Amino acid sequence: MTSPSLWSVYQTLYGHYGEQHWWPGESALEVMVGAVLTQNTAWPNVEKAILAMKQEGLMSAEAIVSTAPQHLAQVIRPSGYFNIKARRLQSLCQWLVYEGGIEALAYYDDDGLRAALLSLHGIGPETADDILLYACQRPVFVIDAYTRRLFSRLSLFTGDEAYDELRLAVEADLRVALDKPGSIVAVYNEYHALIVRHAKAACYKKFPACRVCCLNAVCPSASLFGPNMV
DNA sequence: GTCCAGGGTTCGT
DNA sequence: ACGAACCATGGA
Q1: Residue A167 pLDDT > 60, yes or no?
Q2: CA distance A9 to A15
Q3: Contact in structure between A31 and A59 (CB atoms under 8 Å)
Q4: Across residues A125-133, what is the average pLDDT?
Q5: N or C: which end of chain A has fewer CB within 10 A?
Q6: What are A193-207's pLDDT values in tens digits?
Q7: Residue A36 near residue A127 (C-beta atoms within 8 A)
Q8: Alpha-carbon distance A82 to A91, whole Å?
């Protein structure tokens, strides 16, 4: 069985699901806040917390830093893990204020900004890359459990590569397929969103053996990646 | 009632 | 370097 290319997988997903319009949010700060709040949390719960923050006047770095941790924790309660996430939000916002606001992040190059984000409390690789790609429009491919599962099922990777090893390999592969530099961020944006979208559509809950790419013939998206995948 | 979601940190081995 | 416990809500 031959594996599809990363680019053809993207085209298949895009053709099937269309534009995903990620990341929902009215501002770069809201995207960053959402990236922290969505850690191991269903998105609808995050939306409730974000709405509550707006209603409490807490959707600015200065306000988030200034408010009492206990208050912030109560406001973001629906997103779960509210105590640790309150601390993570304040850590992130304290850094943003120190840097001189989100606009000042433009002075970092991609690797420098990534390193800075990773040094913050509660910002790991996935959260950092969500912020880099969706809040800062940096060309970084987001790797998550769905991505590993899908690429592993398609025999593109083993799935147990180290985070950066997999990310850099994916980026290098797509760089060849994408001749127009300006489209890289747009494709990375759409690709990750499509993988999450596909994971929701997949029947892996109903059929445990069928995780993301649906090898089970009963799965509605069984033939999405061609007859060889059924 | 059980499972898990758009993870990360810390503390064991 | 890798695994497990921990954090905690809401929807299926």
Answers
A1: yes
A2: 10
A3: no
A4: 95
A5: N
A6: 998 888 777 655 555
A7: yes
A8: 14
